[in-house]
């Protein structure tokens, strides 16, 4: 299977997400780095290039997610799936307070942890963007 996502699919995915990262809600124009197309279910796990398996993603979220679908929470026996932008609604799982993305669910806890969404430099950027009305 080719690892190349067709440009038409990339455009569709970006427009569907309104050019926001589907995990942290950062807008592409507020990033120094170009956004990427995430395979929600990675190719190595059998995912494909169909739009239902693709998400628009900032490079930080995409790099931290990698091919993962789950993470551990309280213990190694406590496995939790992460947020799936095609199946889950962002506002059902997350909320933002002073730039910090906070969990409403275990899915959100796992996603925040795995994607390192509230690392200090990411939090600072979101706070600054909120001050000028660019986030969320």
Please, could you describe this protein's structure?
- By secondary structure, the chain is of the alpha+beta class.
- It has one domain (7-131).
- Helices cover 32% and strands 16% of the residues.
- It has five helices and six strands, in the order αββαββαββαα.
- It has helices at residues 7-16, 59-65, 90-93, 106-115, 120-131; strands at residues 36-39, 54-57, 70-72, 79-81, 94-97, 100-103.
Distance separating the two termini: 36 Å
* Strand line-up of the largest beta sheet: 1-2
Q: Report the helical percentage.
A: 25-40%
- Work out the radius of gyration: 15 Å
Task: Report the sheet-strand fraction.
Answer: 15-25%
- Number of helices, where a helix is a run of at least 4 consecutive DSSP H or I residues: 5
Low-confidence residue ranges: none
Number of strands: 6
Instruction: Give the overall shape, derived from the CA principal axes.
Output: globular
Q: What about the largest sheet?
A: 2 strands, antiparallel
Give the number of domains. Answer: 1
Order of helical and strand elements: HEEHEEHEEHH
Mean pLDDT comes to 96
- Indicate the structural class: alpha+beta
């Amino acid at each position: 299977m080719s690892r190349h996502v067709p440009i038409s699919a990339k455009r569709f995915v970006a427009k569907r997400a309104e050019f926001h990262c589907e995990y942290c809600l950062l807008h592409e124009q507020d990033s120094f780095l170009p956004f990427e197309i995430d395979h929600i279910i990675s190719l190595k796990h059998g995912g494909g290039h169909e739009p239902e398996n693709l998400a628009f993603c900032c490079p930080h979220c995409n790099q931290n997610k990698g091919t993962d679908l789950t993470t551990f929470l309280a213990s190694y026996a406590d496995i939790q799936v992460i947020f799936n932008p095609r199946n889950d609604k962002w506002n059902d799982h997350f909320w933002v307070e002073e730039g910090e993305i906070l969990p409403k669910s275990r899915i959100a806890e796992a996603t925040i942890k795995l994607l390192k969404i509230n690392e200090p430099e990411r939090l600072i950027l979101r706070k600054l963007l909120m001050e000028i009305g660019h986030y969320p």
